[in-house]
Every structure is written in structure tokens, then in C-alpha cells.
């Protein structure tokens, strides 16, 4: 089985053209994502046919659970499909069916090579709450980008926050029946934020595109930024735009790391 590993701001996935092959994809995601005994990734993304868009993206987390949407993953998805002539974007971009809805991806080029993309990520859905968590009183902003996020702004430097301890407890809190992605954020300056992400089903990742969008929405509503914000994550910086209405726009890189053949 041929595969390609790709990453967007360090958020890495294994990509497989699944249009003409079948497998136990959740189990394959668990095995291939293993960073010691597999390829090593945050999950598995499949290229599939769609009746309503140019293509369909099917995403599995590292634990084999299926995700609704992946912002960094969809940029690499578009690069994979376009550069392999699986699909050609229109002037408006490549349309991709996901469990969160249809998303439009406009690639950015350096000569003939796709280096990133701008993605219309859909409109956010909002809800507030506070969750006490083992000595941390975390005021959370709830934002859905087709998948659930809980965002908190903290004074402590995100680099020193015990995310590996608190993250799983937020993810599995009983108020989230389908679990949740958790973002901690520092406000560095107007329009500049630093964040870390605990992803549902994968643990801490170097970046999360839908998480960055959720952070930007929460930051704008909290007065921490205007319509545009740069969010620096451990794997790189994503630029997010949201004017308070309608769709959130995300820009970031898309990089192919290597290709291979999975024989196990």
C-alpha cells in the first residue's frame, strides 16, 4: 500500500489514495501513526471520491477514532490531490467534502510547486463554560469548527503549562460526550498569540488548524485581536482571519515529507 507523509506546521499525517482500495482504516491509522513501530504521525487521511465536491477527505486520529475535520490536514490533502492530478481546482479553489461540511481550499504556489493554502473553514459555533480542573480554574470558550474545541487564555507561559496532565482530563471531561480538543493560549501582543494544543484522539500535536481557528474566534470575541491574527504553535505560525461574521479563513504551509510502501 503506497502512502505519503505530509505535514502542515508540524501537524503530520499519513496520506493514502483510497479511491480504489479498502482496509481496516481505524486499525491502520493506529499502526501507521505509532512513532516507534509505524510511520509516525498524528493520524491517517484518505483521499476518496465525492458526489458533492471535487473529493472527500476521510480523517482518522492516531488512536483510530474518526475526526470531522483537520485544518492542517486539508491543506496537505489539496497539495497531494492537485500535484498528482487526482483533481484540478477551479478558479475558486478545490472543494473538499468532510464530516464538518464542504470546505474550499485555494492553493498557494512557488512556481509550479504548492507550498501552502488558504482554506475557508466554515462559520464557528459558540458556547461558554467554566470547568474546574484539579487546581486549575479554567474559563473555557467553546468553539465548534465542525469539531469541538475548548479554548482558555492563561497568564502562565504556555511552554510551562502541564498540558500532558491537564489535557487528557479536559478531553475526557464528562461534559464532552464525544471528547474535545483543548487549546491553551498566551496573548503576546495585539494580533499575536502563542498556543499549544491537546488534540482529541492524538494528544499534544505541533499544530492544529481547526484549533487555531477556534483560538482566533475566541480571541476576537474576547478583545485580544482584530480581524486578523498570527497564532504561533510549536510547529509554526498560522494566519487566521475572521471579521466576526461568516466563515473563518486560515492560511498556512503544506509540505510533503516522504513517500513509502506499507507492507505490514
TrEMBL record:
Pfam families: DAP_epimerase (PF01678)
Keywords per UniProt: Amino-acid biosynthesis, Isomerase, Lysine biosynthesis
PANTHER family given in the database record: DIAMINOPIMELATE EPIMERASE (PTHR31689:SF0), DIAMINOPIMELATE EPIMERASE, CHLOROPLASTIC (PTHR31689)
Name this protein carries in UniProt: diaminopimelate epimerase
GO cellular component: cytosol
Keyword Amino-acid biosynthesis: yes
Organism for this UniProt entry: Geodia barretti
Entry EC no(s): 5.1.1.7
Entry keyword annotation includes Isomerase: yes
Family membership: Belongs to the diaminopimelate epimerase family.
Catalytically driven reaction(s): (2S,6S)-2,6-diaminopimelate = meso-2,6-diaminopimelate
HAMAP family, per the entry: DAP_epimerase
Pathway: Amino-acid biosynthesis; L-lysine biosynthesis via DAP pathway; DL-2,6-diaminopimelate from LL-2,6-diaminopimelate: step 1/1
Molecular functions per Gene Ontology: diaminopimelate epimerase activity
InterPro entries: DAP_epimerase_AS (IPR018510), DAP_epimerase_DapF (IPR001653)
BP-aspect Gene Ontology terms: lysine biosynthetic process via diaminopimelate
Amino acid at each position: 500500500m503506497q502512502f505519503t507523509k505530509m505535514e502542515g506546521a508540524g501537524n503530520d499525517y499519513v496520506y493514502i489514495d483510497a479511491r480504489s482500495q479498502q482496509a481496516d482504516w481505524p486499525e491502520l491509522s493506529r499502526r501507521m501513526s505509532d512513532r516507534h513501530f509505524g510511520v509516525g504521525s498524528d493520524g491517517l487521511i484518505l483521499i476518496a471520491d465525492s458526489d458533492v465536491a471535487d473529493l472527500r477527505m476521510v480523517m482518522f486520529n492516531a488512536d483510530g477514532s474518526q475526526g470531522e475535520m483537520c485544518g492542517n490536514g486539508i491543506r496537505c490533502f489539496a497539495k497531494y490531490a492537485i500535484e498528482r492530478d487526482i483533481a484540478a481546482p477551479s478558479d475558486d479553489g478545490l472543494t473538499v467534502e468532510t464530516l464538518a461540511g464542504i470546505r474550499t481550499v485555494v492553493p498557494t504556489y512557488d512556481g509550479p510547486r504548492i507550498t501552502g493554502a488558504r482554506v475557508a473553514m466554515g462559520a464557528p459555533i459558540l458556547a461558554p463554560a467554566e470547568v474546574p480542573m484539579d487546581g486549575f480554574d479554567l474559563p473555557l470558550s467553546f468553539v465548534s469548527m465542525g469539531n469541538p474545541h475548548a479554548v482558555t487564555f492563561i497568564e502562565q507561559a504556555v511552554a510551562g503549562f502541564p498540558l500532558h496532565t491537564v489535557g487528557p482530563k479536559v478531553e475526557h471531561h464528562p461534559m464532552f460526550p464525544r471528547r474535545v480538543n483543548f487549546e491553551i493560549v498566551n496573548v503576546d501582543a495585539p494580533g499575536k498569540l502563542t498556543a499549544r494544543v491537546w488534540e482529541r484522539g492524538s494528544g499534544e500535536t505541533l499544530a492544529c488548524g481547526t484549533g487555531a481557528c477556534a483560538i482566533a474566534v475566541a480571541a476576537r470575541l474576547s478583545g485580544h485581536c482584530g480581524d486578523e491574527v498570527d497564532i504561533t504553535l510549536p510547529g509554526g505560525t498560522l494566519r487566521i482571519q475572521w471579521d466576526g461574521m461568516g466563515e473563518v479563513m486560515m492560511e498556512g504551509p503544506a509540505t510533503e515529507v516522504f513517500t513509502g510502501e506499507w507492507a505490514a
